[in-house]
Design a protein that fits this description.
The protein is mainly β. The protein is about 5% helix and about 45% strand. The chain has one helix at about 30-35, and strands spanning about 15-25, 40-45, 45-50, 65-70, 75-80, 85-90, 95-105, 130-135, 140-145. It has a nine-stranded antiparallel sheet. The chain is globular.
């Protein structure tokens, strides 16, 4: 016997429409250039980081994902060696590929959680939002909460 999965997430979330752009695979130098002016968040062997794009490492971090945002867009980078597979999400924008995302509060790890190494104070200085795409190719984008 099989059970069908719910069509939408069961958690409390605000559905919004967004434009999604698949940027594709870029080398790290090109990816860093694309992130100019954004705030970035990632977890690596040294812990959880939140920093401006001008403070990104010159080499790809030892991380699987990096999330970045500015006033209009959210970016999701899947880091694969010296390259990153990148998509952007523009909540509330028309045109392009329209997707429904579910926005809900998000938090990094608990203060005493050691999964991401030592947590710096900036890990808890911002309120985060998760922008989740459900369906056959789910993905999560992250940004500081919009006030």
């Amino acid at each position: 016997m099989t059970t069908s999965l719910p069509a939408e997430p069961r958690h409390t979330a605000q559905p919004v429409t967004a434009r999604m752009d698949r940027i594709g695979r870029l080398d790290w130098t090109e990816a860093r250039s694309l992130l100019t002016g954004t705030t970035c968040a990632w977890a690596d062997l040294d812990g959880f980081h939140v920093a401006g794009s001008d403070q990104l490492p010159t080499e790809p971090p030892h991380s699987t994902h990096l999330w970045a945002w500015d006033q209009d867009r959210c970016l999701r980078l899947r880091i694969d060696g010296s390259q990153a597979l990148i998509a952007s999400l523009l909540p509330g924008h028309d045109g392009g590929e329209q997707v429904r995302v579910y926005v809900r509060p998000g938090t990094p790890w608990a203060v005493d959680d050691k999964q991401a190494g030592p947590l710096q104070p900036e890990a808890h200085a911002l309120a985060f939002e998760l922008l989740e795409l459900s369906g056959p190719a789910p993905a999560t984008f992250v940004r500081a909460a919009v006030s």
